[in-house]
Specification:
The chain has 393 residues and is α+β, with helices and mostly antiparallel strands. The chain has helices at 2-11, 200-207, 213-216, 253-258, 319-351, 365-377; strands spanning 61-66, 75-79, 82-88, 94-98, 112-114, 117-119, 126-127, 133-135, 152-153, 155-158, 161-165, 188-196, 228-235, 239-248, 267-275, 279-286, 289-301, 304-314, 385-392. The chain contains six helices and 19 strands. It binds FE2/S2 (inorganic) cluster and fe (ii) ion (FE2).
């Protein structure tokens, strides 16, 4: 019976839902960062495994929400545990402030938008897009608002997303990520939103990890007879990618969708790519068919990550028909990933520590950590890299 139960759960993990993450009992964490496993070694146990390692990159753009979700009500979120409220203020433009009223610390996300101002629920102090208090309802005299302000976060709305620069009162010198294909009508597209109980790094690693697909997603993607293929790994200052060479069309329902119209026998072009600070791309091309899944991740806290996955595709069948077939499959795959990431985090909590043993086919995870860690420390990015490995998938 036990075996049966295990098999059942293996094949049918409960659906992970868009849930708010339960409050997390913070593990001992002094902010120091240890070494991740060295991917050049066949196997390695992390030296310091008495606590978890999370890199905090605040001088970066992250998605706060989708444009369609920001209406007449302010929305609250956190980025690295910092409470932020986003709202549409002057001329309907998106703005973001620290989610704490200067008067008595009430979350401004409880407030309302009145006369294009974010108005606190308690005494009605009104804030403009820059965080300046421009009205105190019970106060007879005017003026003095400049001393009554809350920190403001730079905000840009682009391609259906509201981006926030995660460090307040800073004029960013960079711009948010631009999605390829999203403005190109020759591509079909749809977006899936998730929240997972996992660190930014663990989530990125999962999205860009090949070997788990044959197990966690068996039947949906890979899991048939393995093939030996080559992965070429390249790193630049702000990104690292693995190009998989010589992989035939994998087995599984999702792969069959990619193979629609394929005459057979052709190798697929497959890239997995990480772009600083929190973007993953999985790209497949087969003949004239092209499928790209770009995920933009927002670290809500050390162990809660929200992401939107934008899937763009050009395949030889009508976009809407493809979406009707493919979206449920993509959702099932992401549900499985969200479920396993939650189990990983719960094990870290239970053991009050994290330990990693890696091999060289853990291709991108340790390298992504190296880049995040360097940025967290203010070190220069790891230098360019190109190497190849063999793996069975
Ligand atoms: S606490 Fe916000 S107006 Fe008083
Ligand atoms: Fe996965």
């Amino acid at each position: 019976m036990l075996t049966h139960a295990l098999v059942f759960h293996w094949d049918n993990p409960p659906l992970a839902r868009k849930t708010s993450v339960k409050p997390f009992h913070r593990l001992r964490h002094d902010g120091t960062l240890g070494e991740m496993p060295d991917p050049s070694q066949p196997a390695h146990i992390a030296a310091d495994s008495t606590r978890y390692r999370v890199a905090h990159l605040r001088e970066q753009w992250y998605v706060a929400c989708r444009s369609k979700d920001l209406g007449k009500k302010p929305l609250g979120l956190t980025i690295y545990d910092t409470p932020i409220v986003v709202f549409r203020g002057t001329d309907g433009r998106a703005a973001a402030l620290l989610d704490r009223c200067a008067h008595r610390n009430i979350p401004l996300s409880l407030g309302r938008i009145e006369n294009q101002r974010l108005t606190c629920r308690y005494h009605g102090w009104a804030y403009d897009n820059d965080g300046t208090c421009v009205g105190v309802p019970a106060l007879c005299e005017s003026g003095g608002g400049e001393t009554r302000r809350v920190p403001a976060f730079a905000t840009i709305e682009s391609q259906g997303f509201v981006w926030v620069f995660a460090s307040p009162d800073v004029e960013p010198t960079s711009e948010p990520f631009t999605f390829p294909h999203l403005d190109d009508d020759s591509f079909g597209k749809f977006t899936l939103d998730y929240e997972v109980e996992a660190s930014l790094h663990a989530t990125l690693e999962n999205m860009l990890d090949v070997p788990h697909t044959a197990f966690l997603h068996r039947g949906l993607f890979r899991g048939g007879t393995p093939n030996e293929i080559t992965a070429v790994i390249r790193r630049d200052a702000d990104r690292i990618e693995a190009q998989y060479v010589g992989e035939p069309l994998p087995s599984g329902l999702a792969a069959r969708i990619l193979g629609i119209g394929d005459s057979g026998g052709e190798a697929i072009e497959h890239y997995d790519r990480f772009i600083m600070p929190s973007i993953s791309q999985v790209e497949y091309q087969l003949g004239n068919s092209h499928l790209l899944a770009t995920s933009v991740l927002t670290p809500l806290s050390d162990f809660a990550t929200r992401f939107s996955t934008v899937i763009t595709y050009r395949l030889p069948i009508p976009h809407l028909l493809l979406r009707a077939v493919f979206e449920p499959v993509a959702r099932r795959i992401l549900n499985q990933d969200a479920w396993i990431l939650g189990r990983q985090t719960q094990a870290v909590r239970r053991f009050e520590r994290e330990e990693y043993v890696s091999t060289k086919v853990d291709i991108l995870g340790p390298e992504i950590w190296r880049m995040l860690e360097a940025a967290h420390r203010g070190d220069s990015a790891p230098g360019p890299l190109e190497r190849s490995i063999q793996l069975l998938v």
